[in-house]
Amino acid sequence: MSDILEKLHREARYALNSHSLNLTYQTYGKAEMAYKLKAITWDEFSELNTILVRNGINNPAAQLS
Question: What is the pTM of this model?
Answer without folding.
Answer: 0.92
